Every structure is written in structure tokens, then in C-alpha cells.
Amino acid sequence: MTKPKRTHPLGLLQHIAKSIKDYWFLLILVLTSHDYTSIWFWGIMTILLVAFFIWPLAKWLTLTYVIAPDAIVVHSGVFVRHHEHIPYARIQTVQNKQWFYLRPFKLEEVLIETASHSDSAPEARLTAVPITVAQLINHYRQVATTAPTATDPQTDDSPATATEPAPVTATPQPAAYYQINYRDLVKFGLTSLIFIPFLLVLLGLYNKIPHKVADALIDDASHLGLTLLIGGAIVIVLIAWLGAFLWTLTRYYHFELSRSNHQLVAAKGLFQRNTVTAPLDRLQGVRIKQNILRQWLHLQTIQVLVASKAASDDDDNDLVVMPVIDNAIVYRTMQPFIQWLPSQQPDLSALRVARSWYQIRNTMLVVAVPIALLWWLWPSWGWLSLILLPIAALQGRFAAKNTAGALLSPKLLALQTGHFWERELYYIPTEKIQSMKVTRSIWMKRTHLAHLVVNIRHGNHNQAIELRYLHADAAHAIYDWYLHRT
């Protein structure tokens, strides 16, 4: 059997970085302390030394791993020892993260997840291991799925190779390959709505400015004209947009997607190269989404839903497999990668909203509460909140107009929703449906309406896809099919 190995010493740096991230408040206590002779200061310094250096060193020294032909075995724990045995057939995703400082040493971080992983961490995290480790894991995964009874040539009876990993076969030519070009990457960055969180961060920084400085800025601004004030606001928005654009470019730099050996491999990133490998038979569904900017420009983003947190850095925690693509070529581009997708835009008129008014009414009722509060708290400014009513009405109409769906075949269900100015189209293999239900209130019986809810697995949670205010007969037709499917 292969001898247990430790990760590279550079892995200790990542353990230290994680400790600093978890216990950063200790640094704040030290920096804000002014009495360097007190016992409290030296007590905090001792805790700091243990938390940032001794404890990470102990964790690194006690973590070993074995890449065996039948499973991955990870030994960890300082005071309580943990022995994790992960069969290859149970692995959902393998994620490789390679920071720029690891590239010269041909090292990377490997994260392994199964369907039973916790929210906080994957089953196994190997920091700073040779890049051949992930290749060997993927090799054994393919052997486990294609030839489960085959034995590996590396056994205890072969002393010459007993301490060496099995040779990794040459990487086969991918059956399908895509690499983003510079123009599409720029489109993706410019149409991303991630600038909104950046804008909120900039506004939050204003609260950190000393009050004297903030008051001086307000006094200076009061002497400026309305045009200059509006111009300042536009500059802040542009700064947030530029920051989001650069952030998106570095995250999706040199994006690649390939399919080989029944696996999808997505790789991206400038400073940190992030590669996720997901078996095609473990995909829970495909999501094609468009925010309002991409709807105007006829662009779409394609993601796959997997039962892991490997895509936690991506939008909605779903693995991006096509960052941006024109509407006209979506299906012919994606079919070589996911062959059960339709070859063209399907007809989704089987499931449509019967009465749009109900969606409009509901969204207007939601904003009625904040409007009432604003009128009560600030009567002189409450009239400004009335602008929320037409916005809510338009959002309700958008949701109703974009609700659609159909059973495309006994093996594929398509559901489309619209919320928060974003259209999402789900393609769900019917064997991946966890449950389905039809709900209706006592008032909806009179109007022959119903809600259809389809549940699938998403990360470590449930993804509920709800189509509201459908014709009751259409919703029950899908539900009856689900009950009697073979």
C-alpha cells in the first residue's frame, strides 16, 4: 500500500493564512493595545503565537494522505485523530486551486467533495500537493466508473513500486473544447451586476470616514451645483463598475471548458487558477440565465447544478460552464458538452401563467409595507417612495411573462422563471428530480389556478423551482406524469 505523505511545506503558509482569516480579531486587540508591559498584552501575544504559528504547524504535521487504487485516505487531527476513507465512486467533484506562487513548484490545492459533505468544508482538502495528485485521483475515478472490477498493478506484492503511485495515463484528447475569447470576456465583465455589491462597499466605506472629514465633505458639496453632485454620483457608480469589471476579468481569465471521459472540466483564473472536474452523470441540471443587461444584448450565461460546493465562488454557487454566449448559438455550442440538452430553443408554452394580474398584485403588496413606513416616519419625503409602485408592477409583469415550462421528453423537463429582473431556464433530467408538488389555496380552486414546485439537489441543499399561477390542468398533467413515470 502507498505510504502516507505530507503536503509540501508551502502548505503550511496556507494553514497560517486560514488561521489569520479565522482569528484576525486577535491582531486588532494587539494593535489597539497601548500598555505593552501588562500581563493582558503578553497573554494576547501568546495566544496570537499559538493561533497563527504553532497550531497551523501542528495541523500541517499531523495531516497525511494516501492516494490508493480504491479510495483516498486522509489522516488528520492534533488531539483527536480523524481517518477519512473516500471511495472514488462517491466523489461528486474534484477542485484544483493553484495560486500564482505555487505554479513555479508545480503544486496546487486539491478539494474533494462527495454528496455528504458539510456546508463549511469539503471531505478532503490537500494544500500544496503535486499537480500529479489530482491527475491520479481522476485516473482512479475513471477506472472506478468504467472498470470497477479491474485491479491496479500497484500492489504490496510489487516491492519495486510499492511506495510510488500508479502511473497516470496520458490525458486523452477532449471530445469537446471551448476557450473564451477576449471579446466575450469583456462582454461578460461589462454585463455583470456584481458592481452592485461593489457600490454598496464604497457606500459602506463612507461610514468609516471620520465625522469631521465627512462633515467637511458635505459642507463643500452643499456649495456645488446639482450637476456636479449628479456627476459625483455617476463617478462613484463608474468606479464600482470598473472594480467589478476587473474582478470578473481576473476570476474568469483564460476560461476553458472541456469534456472527456464522461467528465466536464472547467478552468479559470489569473492569480488563482481554479479547475473543477464534475462527472456528467452527477449533474443535477443546467441553468441558462440572463440578467436584464444580457437580455437587452441577447446574451446568456450557462451554469450546471452540482451536489457540491465546488462552485461556491461562482454566481449562485453554480458552476459556470459558459460565461457569456449569444442567444442564437447557445444550443449548438452546448450540445457537444451536455448531449441531453435540446438542439434548439424548445416550445415552453405548455406551462404558462394564466393571469398576470396576480403576480403584479403580489409584488405591489410587498412594497406597500415599506412605502407606508416611509410615509409614517418621513411624511415630507414619503411621496418619493411612490416610485416603488410602478417598479414593482413591472417586476410582477416580468415574472409572469417569463414563467413557462414543458415536458420535452420522458427524460427531460424544462422550467423557466423570472424574478428580480433575471430570467432563468432550467433543464432537469427527470431522474434527478427529488420531489414535486402542486399547491393551491381555497381561492385558487375557484379560478382553476395552481403552483407547481419541483425540487432538485443544489450544493448541499435543496433547489425549489416554483412556477406560480399556472392553469391547474397543465400543472396536474406534469404532476400526474411524475407520479406514474417508470
What does this 3D model show about the protein?
This protein is 38% helix and 28% strand. With 486 residues, the protein is of the alpha+beta class. Among the domains are: 10-166, Roll (PH-domain like); 182-251, no CATH class; 356-399, no CATH class. A 7-stranded antiparallel β-sheet has the order 6-5-4-10-9-8-7. A 6-stranded antiparallel β-sheet has the order 13-12-11-16-15-14. A 3-stranded antiparallel β-sheet has the order 1-2-3. Helix 5 packs across helix 8 and helix 11 (356-377) packs antiparallel against helix 12. The longest helix is centred in the middle third of the chain and has 26 residues, at 226-251.
Record the SSE blueprint:
Layout: H1 10-22, H2 24-31, H3 39-62, E1 64-67, E2 71-76, E3 82-87, E4 91-99, E5 107-114, E6 124-130, H4 131-146, E7 176-179, H5 182-190, H6 195-206, H7 211-222, H8 226-251, E8 256-260, E9 263-268, E10 272-279, E11 285-291, H9 292-296, E12 299-305, E13 319-326, H10 330-334, H11 356-377, H12 388-401, E14 404-409, E15 412-419, E16 422-429, E17 433-439, H13 442-447, E18 449-458, E19 461-471, H14 472-484
Antiparallel strand pairs: 1-2, 2-3, 4-5, 4-10, 5-6, 7-8, 8-9, 9-10, 11-12, 11-16, 12-13, 14-15, 15-16, 17-18, 18-19
InterPro entries: UCP026631, YdbS-like_PH
Transmembrane segments: 39-58, 185-206, 226-249, 360-377
Domain YdbS-like PH: 60-134, 252-311, 420-482
